[in-house]
Amino acid sequence: MSIKPTCREVHQLTSESMDRDLSMVERARMHMHLLICTACRNFTEQMQLLRRAMHEIVPTDQDENQERPPR
Fold first, then answer.
1. Could you give the angle at the alpha carbon of 44 between the alpha carbons of 10 and 36, nearest 5°?
2. Quick check: helix, strand or coil at residue 70?
3. Which residue, among 5, 13, 8, 68, has the nearest Cα to 33 in the 3D structure?
4. Per-residue DSSP letters for 34-61?
5. 39 part of a folded domain
6. Prediction pTM value
7. What span, in angstroms and rounded, lies between the C-alpha atoms of 32 and 29?
């Protein structure tokens, strides 16, 4: 494990951070990479935006009134 992770590792850590708390070492390595890599910074910001958007989705009345398929 090098001090500065690759873009692939940062993408993996970004995904994992959605499900669990990263360790202090993981966060530090990711932060170091994001300071210099615009592409990974954009990817991380987009993932955070998608997560916030998914949390804000509230079913509308129309969605609730639609017939649901049997299970």
1. 65
2. coil
3. 5
4. HHH-HHHHHHHHHHHHHHHHHHH----H
5. yes
6. 0.68
7. 5
Residue 64 lies in a domain: no
68 within domain boundaries = no
pLDDT band at 33 (very low <50, low <70, confident <90, very high): very high
Q: Answer whether 18's CB lies under 8 Å from 48's CB.
A: no
Show the domain range for 46: 7-56
Determine, yes or no, domain membership for 29: yes
Q: Does the pLDDT at position 55 exceed 90?
A: no
Q: Are 24 and 32 in contact (CB under 8 A)?
A: no
Kindly report the backbone phi and psi dihedral angles of residue 70, in degrees, each rounded to the nearest multiple of 5, phi listed first.
-65, 150
**What count of Cα atoms within 13 Å lies in the side-chain half-sphere of residue 35?**
8
